[in-house]
Design goal:
Mean pLDDT: 88
Shape: globular
Largest sheet: 4 strands, mixed
Helix content: 40-55%
Oligomer: single chain
Radius of gyration: 21 Å
Strand order of the largest sheet: 3-4-1-5
Distance between the termini: 33 Å
Number of helices: 14
Strand content: 5-15%
Order of helices and strands: EEHHHHHHHHHEEEEEEHHHHEEH
Low-confidence stretches: 275-280
Length: 369
């Protein structure tokens, strides 16, 4: 399943490899809020969370929907700066309607690839965003209300929060990893110049490839092998055409693909891939593989891996009935792949990431035993 970036006619110099402190901070915050995604970072996550002041930790929880399930586009700059302050200055230049829409695109937008009215000016969209935020709990509901009623004040609050993260832990991290990331970006830039884009993409990630269309159109496309579907063009932002690649030392196993309408395409790729632990239980592995054999359950797992969702939300997102969703959820839950909890009148389902992370290594150990 491929996501597509049409780069037909794009000059090679419009393809940018560069480290970004804001994007790396977003990756670090994601790892802190979802350690199950990053088994190789458990030691760092535990030590960092333990060292956070209570007030800062509480405020990070308020805003974590910006980076928890995925990463808001506002945290993936298409034109990286040398410092976090420079990138935050550029973020301040985004107009309120575009900023708010980007803030809600991850878990309150009905379709990432389709423009929707801004909740700042559209009453129906504002009501829908508030309803979806309420399902995530009181923290996100309160944060959402603040963003809708006082976007300027909320943006000042968010910038101060990111600056405090730099002071508390990220400044030391960036001094340590920025050298490696800059070296990787330079290497990819040189590879692009001397070997071409196809080889550069292959060296960047096994999930990236270059394809020339076979329909005689002469078009050239970057293919991004991810379960979700997406399509954009390097000319989506007419004022700044191109594609930006951001290396990250915290991002594995994620390959982020930002391609909202009107935004320059951005890919954040990991520069290291730590090994997963390998416990084993063959009979249970067989049951879990059978549960994952249905294509709709695979799609549901992708959504549930990024955060908790209600049955109604899943039914709306995939265009099936709530009873169908419930049957798929029951199968996944019986196999021990799903966690369920109640929050008020909402029942939320989420993929058990640690169980799924062990599945491949469990299988391999079982057949080789």
């Amino acid at each position: 399943m491929a996501n597509v970036i049409d780069i037909t006619g794009l000059p090679p110099e419009r393809i940018l490899f560069s480290p970004s402190p804001l994007a790396e901070l977003g990756a670090a915050l994601h790892a802190l809020s979802e350690p199950g995604h990053h088994p190789g970072l458990h030691g760092w996550v535990t030590a960092t969370n333990a060292g956070l002041k209570t007030d800062l930790a509480d405020r990070l929880c308020e805003a974590d929907f910006l980076w928890r399930s995925s990463r808001s586009d506002i945290l993936l700059p298409a034109r990286p700066g040398a410092t976090l302050a420079e990138e935050l200055d550029e973020m301040d230049k985004i107009d309120d309607e575009r900023f708010v829409a980007a803030a809600f695109e991850i878990n309150c937008s009905p379709a990432y690839t389709r423009p929707t009215p801004s909740p700042l000016v559209d009453a129906d969209e504002r009501a829908r965003v508030r309803e979806m935020a309420a399902a995530r709990g009181p923290r996100q509901a309160a944060f959402t209300d603040r963003m809708l009623t006082d976007p300027d004040g909320l943006r000042v609050w968010l910038r101060r929060l990111l600056e405090e993260c730099e002071q508390a832990f990220f400044g030391d991290i960036w001094r340590r990893v920025s050298i490696q990331l800059a070296a990787d970006a330079r290497h990819k830039t040189e590879l692009l110049r001397h070997k071409g884009l196809a080889e550069t993409l292959s060296a960047t990630s096994r999930a990236l490839s270059l394809e020339d269309a076979q329909d005689g159109s002469g078009s050239t496309r970057i293919l991004v092998d991810k379960l979700a579907r997406g399509r954009t063009t390097a000319f989506a932002n007419a004022a700044d055409p191109g594609v930006t690649f951001l290396p990250t030392s915290f991002g594995w196993p994620h390959l982020l693909f930002g391609h909202a309408p009107g935004w320059r395409p951005v890919l954040q790729y990991p520069v290291a891939s730590p090994e997963l632990p390998a416990p084993a239980a063959l009979e249970l592995v067989q049951q879990r593989l059978e549960a994952l054999g249905h294509p709709m359950r695979m799609q549901l797992c992708r959504t549930l891996s990024r955060g908790p969702h209600t049955t109604g939300e899943l039914a709306t997102a995939f265009g099936i009935t709530s009873p169908e969703v419930s049957r798929h959820i029951a199968t996944l839950k019986k196999a021990g792949l799903i966690q369920t909890r109640r929050r008020g009148r909402y029942v939320l389902h989420q993929l058990d990431l640690q169980v799924v992370a062990r599945l491949g290594s469990d299988f391999l150990e079982g057949v080789l035993r």
